[in-house]
Amino acid sequence: MNIKLADINDLQHIVPLFNAYRVFYKQPSDITGAEAFVRERLQNGDSKIYLAFIDGKAAGFTQLYPIFSSVSMGKAWLLNDLYVDADCRKRGVGKALLDMAKALGAEQQAKWIMLQTDTTNTTAQKLYEDNDFEKDHCFTYFHTIKKEA
Question: Which residue ranges does the record assign to the N-acetyltransferase domain (predicted)?
Answer without folding.
Answer: 1-149
